[in-house]
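Continuing from the previous page of notes. For each protein in this section, the sequence appears first, followed by its structure tokens. Read the first protein now.
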Amino acid sequence: MTQNETGRFDYIIVGAGSAGCVLANRLSADPSKRVLVLEAGGRDNWIWFHIPVGYLFAIGNPRADWMFRTEEQAGLNGRSLAYPRGKVIGGSSAINAMIYMRGQAADYDRWRQAGLPGWGWDGVLPYFLKMEDHARPMNASHRSGGEWRVDFPRMRWDLLDAVQDAAERVGIPKVDDFNTGDNEGSSYFQVNQKNGRRWSAARGFLKPVLNRPNLHLETGVRVERVVMEGRRAVGVLYTKGSEQFFARADGEVVLSAGAVCSPQLLELSGIGQPERLRDLGIPLVHALPGVGENLQDHLQLRPIFKVSGVRTLNDDYRKLWMRGLMALEYALFRKGPLTMAPSQLGLFTRSSPEQATANVQFHIQPLSLDKFGDMPHPFPAFTASVCNLRPTSRGSIHARSGDPRSAPMIHPNYLSTEEDRRVAVDSIRLARKIANAAPLARFHPEEFRPGAHLTTDGELVAAAGDIGTTIFHPVGTAKMGSDDDPTAVLDARLRVRGVEGLRVVDASAMPSITSGNTNSPTMMIAEKGAEMILADAKSASRA
């Protein structure tokens, strides 16, 4: 294979996903800095990347999705799950649920308390605010004028209003805003949309600045490894078609390939557990045993309840004429079901009284199906998807072989702790309690999944294994940690420990998962990380 020299850059960003788009925007703002962005996917020139309901067609489609799968999971009764990840500029923000969620102040305060200065709630809030363009009037919690558009849903459902009333009846109060640091309560989700269209990281951060002469984007490329000279990263080796290229970094290489691919790239570059790399035939460059470990994900359980006497999307979608009306409503007014995120109503609450803060999240949907991509069920129903926000189970993601074209091994290790199994049982019982509350009685809810005949703890743990699936929030596989943490891959400035000129800036860096949807926290990490990169470069130039 012919190797070509691409050129010299100050910064090479591997991955144009949620984090990579933010980094590209910020690092190229100085016209004297040359920035190369390498993206394995393509441009977002497909209609379903922009119409919100397009996630139904993008997830599970190799045009938009990497089509990863987990290994078989004991906690899921031996099942293997599809593990969607966006394969396009914008990454998973181009195919995800569009839910704007920061998490809880306590999440970040735990990071700070674990020895990561600057990562507490007070330290990260300014970065959320810097990027935000919120439809809400400016206040202490929200700003306008940034690149990351946040809007309100453009459709409501009588059924979801009744679920919210039922949740209030069982002690989950209605709240106005999930994003003030305490998200306990119920509310309609805020979404990353503008005028009824998806607002991806590419649309907000990358595409508006691609005209900068110092910013170069390459799509359809596969990065094979980071090139090292001793303990310093000096560039990357990548392929496009049948040609191989080397790009040199005079400043830094920044991995933003996500919690699945960034640890794989570290291992392919000789950074990781020595024994694992030896078995893969990869020469060891630097031993870091935490690479690929500490995987955390939100496992969603999807109880489904049949209803009657109320409209659901199951009814609408299965009627061809209704689908035509939906399309017309969207084309004329940018409203209606085609503007819907996968979930509209959110509930955050505690699965049991001993929880200090809300530890479960419901995504309530006025529809039901076996899995994304399938037709809705042939009866009216709603889904009360619920996930454990702070799982104690830990999994891993590792390179399967030394071949960069080989998909990594994904082992989430769901429901492997007694605590996670207890929260799963309590969550199913809480979903039933909400469904049986008086405000929903007029719709005669009837449990379809997992089945009302399952009542004991053992039966419900087994049911959780049958109906549990990822909610697409993998984090933590190259975690930040303090100097005395032997499993830490990164320091508090997102630098790979023991290596110069190399950082990981994406969801991999999270030491523990945030209490909610993880896309906007990942972008916050990139916003803060870009500032750190520029500040460190400035300090080095003065030295």
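Done with the first. The second protein uses the same format. Note its length before scrolling.
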Amino acid sequence: MTDDDCLSGWADLAYGSRHMVFEHCSEAIALLDPYGDRLGDLNIAACQLLGYPRHELLALPVSKLFGHQLADLIVFSQAVLEKGRGWTDGLSCNCKSGERIELEISATTLSIKGQLQIILVLHERSEKQYQRDQADTARTMRGGLLEWRNILNLFQESERDNQLLLSAVGDGIYSIDNQGLATFVNPAGARMLGWQPKDMIGKNIHRIHHHSHADGSHYPVEDCPIYRAVHDGVVHEGRQEVFWRRDGSSFPVEFTSTPVIADSRIVGAVVVFRDITERRTTELQLQTALDELKDLKKRLEEQNAYLQEEIHIEHNYREIVGQSEPILKIIKQIDVVAPTDASVLIHGESGTGKELIARAIHQASKRSGHPLIRVNCAAIPAELFESEFFGHIRGAFTGAVRDRVGRFELADGGTLFLDEIGEIPLDLQSKLLRVLQEGQFERVGEERTRKVDVRIVAATNRNLRHEVEAKRFREDLYFRLNVFPLQSPALRERPMDIAPLALHFLQQIGGRLNLTGRRLLQSDLERLQGYPWPGNIRELQNVIERALITSQGRDLKIDLPEVTAQPGVSMAISATPEILTDEQIRQLERDNTLAALAQCHGKLFGKGGAAEMLGLKPTTLASRLKRLNIEA
């Protein structure tokens, strides 16, 4: 055997001896990891003290053992880590039996693998005090009569000191006899109740300050927990009760009534009480703040869910493209109105980019840091309009399984874009007007009035002035929305923008479909500029996407209906438009829609459907069919 082997053996033997001493030490010892919320090790005495098997204690978070005093434990641990040692008798621990034992703890630090740990030596405070009392008694017995006289003097002095202490303490303290009559009242207690101590002695305390509940209803003496301690000998606590002052006012208290027992007989009780007005106020403020945070969190979650949904919606384009006079005019108008909070009403045919204009207004406004919430009024069933706009509470109607935040609440502080505003039912327009005027609304099924700060940008492809005259749209709502009107120009009115728009879509859609490197011929651009584009920008986007998909080589194959591929015709129409009546326009719209349905053999949506042919969103086509009373 080598010298190294001998040294290793002695080291193992020494470690085993130290561990055996730790394991069988009569003192309860535990190793606390202050950063991991767990016990690293503990001996048999510690397990017996806490009433748990070792493996359960090692798996149990320390915060569970000291959960009711977790803040105090953290403060004590930090002090020990800073000073290297510490002592306290102010902590108590939850045993497995459910009993809470008060502890006296000595602590010191120990570095293990470069990280500080805390060694705790635990004593049950009552047992420690009992051992001290036993030692004092033994010394006293040995001391003889002289010692007894000294102790008697000590008790007398101690009693005087206790009286002074009770008089100086800030909590209210009084004692009663077994008849419920006051035998002692400290100055703090009398002051809180608005009495002089001498005026309370000998009187029934319950009738003085505990005669009524918080709502003013009578509090019978037999139900009073203060007096119950005199009868059953059990400590009683009150945490949600009030005491009444001499002037008739009240204040919230928490109190403890502890029976006093002498010669196996209950002779009275000692009551300690505390005014918790300030604490209750703080708790209410904290609860209010927590409720507000909860509401804010819920709103943010709803906004996040909405924005996540919006991410999956493919917008026509991400910037306004074009240098034509109508587009430059729109940009100037956006620069003028965006910094204000004025309501904006965007007029224009379907597919002209009204939503893009709304987004540009929002991004240039002081509300750009808040959400832009979009609502397609044409896609909402009539019976769900109110819930969609204002939200609802759980159980407000069949299917309302949870509270729901409406679009107005989601847009609080930001902008609400109401697309196809002309589709809102007449009976809901008055409620919408109230929100716009007063900034107030109620969720469906709720009586609470909520306030919002929302800017409105609306869009329509209808002539709302004619709708007002036909009594299908409220005149006051129209004027409320039409503070700053904007006209979104049709694509046929800006032919010089067709080429840059086509190239923009070629790059954007080509990147999305992984079909880059395609090009437009000059002849194709001329054909595009000669087409009247009844579906406007949306139709142009669809034509470019279809060409990218169907073309085989680098050159795009533009597919346009032959009837419209005549440059002179569309320009002539734009130059000298025929004036039609509103009824003629409606009939023309109906005939055009029926023609599209016939050509598509009744197919509404998808590739080759009527919605694509008309350059409409599926939801807009569905709304139009309903409005024109056309059976699909």
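What the second structure shows: The longest strand covers residues 100-112. The first helix runs from residue 3 to 24. We return to this in next week's lecture.
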